[in-house]
Each structure stands twice: as structure tokens, then as C-alpha cells.
Amino acid sequence: METVLRDLSFLEGPRWRAGRIWVSDFYTRRVLSALPDGSDLRVEATVPAQPSGTGLLPDGRVLIASMRDQVVLRREPDGSLVTHADLAGLARGVLNDMAVDPQGRCWVGCFGFDLMGGAAMEPAVLIRVDPDGRAEIVAEDMWFPNGTVCDGRTLVVAESFGNRLTAFDVGPDGGLANRREWARFGEPPTSRDVGAVLPGLAVVPDGISEPDAEGAIWVADADHGRAIRVREGGEIADEVRLPEGLHSYAVALGGDDGRTLFLCAAPSFLEHERRDTRDAALLATGVEVPLA
């Protein structure tokens, strides 16, 4: 396990793009990029309302989920930020992770409730944003939709408090059908108390990678100090343990040969513990099966 970046607040949304690793740093409100060894660190965007998930449009422009104002931003070639879609009338709670598919459609999750404020857990929605910025809710009753991947035909979403990865078939018009459990780690929650639910979750699936060459997905297990490689059906085929005291909140496969697993790591996810500290890091380790 190597440290790529250190002394950051809380990292999310890692993406491998054109020889660089991109990542959002919540509480410094920056989207950063660096070479895979951490050198040539750049600030790619400053997002006052806090950046989270990112994704790449087919033409190379980057989309960024701006959490607190519920807006998806688009980074233009000159580095400027414009509003791609305003989701304030659709999202429930702050925006979360997201993915962009080969057709340029953006799939965005949200919290569903005030996690940091200690509110009771409520189901959330998944939102599709079309290339022209039009948006609609495409799935409901999701338990904290988080890491997302979509190849244009199949959409997989991590439900962090649902003990599962959920899949959908994607129609030509962007409609979703055939909702199913892609991987089930345990029973869904019966309590609305996050403090009671967390200890009972076998896996807390947070950020997830794009599928590797065998179709497996790396999953950041946010409460157990590890990332796991999961096959469709739920088999855990591999595991990477983080250094003592750290948890993994998002992962991405990349590197020049597609065999580097990048991990967003921090001691916890709670805002009051991370906002004014700088002990989050971007880690990396080699894996056997490369990115597809």
C-alpha cells in the first residue's frame, strides 16, 4: 500500500483519466488531479458547495456533483464551471456519488436524509441527467445510493445502508427496468437509526470501481477497514486491508496498465471529525485483474 496524496480532509469520487487520478476533497472544496505517484498535483476545480462524485462526458468534459446546492456542474475546456443540471427539485438531501455512461447520461445519488445531523434514516432517489441537462427521478426507495457504474446497458449502484449492490437494465431512452440485487451482503435495514443499523451491516458499500476484465467490481467497505472485489451474485473474490485506523470510502481502478487500485482513506466519515482535520489520504496498491 503506497500513499499517493496525504494531508487532505475527506476524499471521494476518484476517477482515472488520461494518465492522471482525479479526486474530490470535501472540506477544502477542491477537485484535484495528480500523476499516479502523487506528483504534479493540480487544483482542477473549486466547488464552494462541496464536491463529491465526478464523471467524464464523451467529449472529455468533467461533471461534478456539487453537494449542498444540489447542482451538477460541468467543467469546460478552459477550466470554468457552469451548471449542467439543477437537481434541487428532485434530490432528497445533499448530492452524493455519480457516474456518466458512454451516452453522456449522468446518474446521481443523494443522501435521502440529514446523515451528519443525526436524523432518522429515510430512503433516497436516483436521478438521471440527460446530456442536455434535463433530469428526472428514475429509482426510488434506495438506502443511501452511493457509488455508481454504468456501461450504457447495465447500471449498478451501491446502497450503503442496504447491505447490497443493486442493478438495473438501462433502456435506449434511459429508462430503468429489471431491478435486482447484483450482490447481497446481508439483510436490508429494519431500523431507521443509523447508529443501530451500521453494526449489523456485513458490508457498507460506498464508492465502487468500474468492472475489471472479469466483470468483478471493487467496493469500498466503509466501516470495516477494507476494499473487497465482488463478483455478480455476491462472492467476495479478493480483499485489500487498509492500514490500522483507516477506512476506505471510495475506490477506482486505473494506472497505465489498469492494475492500480486507488483508495480514498480516512479515519471516519463524520463531518465534525473531518472538516478541520487533514488526515485523509489517497492510497494505491496493485491488483491482479486489470480494468476492463
UniProtKB/TrEMBL annotation:
Keyword annotations of the record:
Hydrolase
Has keyword Ion transport?
no
Q: Fetch the InterPro entries from UniProt.
A: 6-blade_b-propeller_TolB-like, SGL, SMP-30/CGR1_Lactonase
Stretches assigned to the SMP-30/Gluconolactonase/LRE-like region domain: 12-265
Q: Which SUPFAM superfamilies match?
A: Calcium-dependent phosphotriesterase
Q: Which domain of life is it from?
A: Bacteria
Q: Which residues form a coiled coil?
A: none
Give the family, as the similarity comment puts it: Belongs to the SMP-30/CGR1 family.
Q: What is this protein called?
A: SMP-30/gluconolactonase/LRE family protein
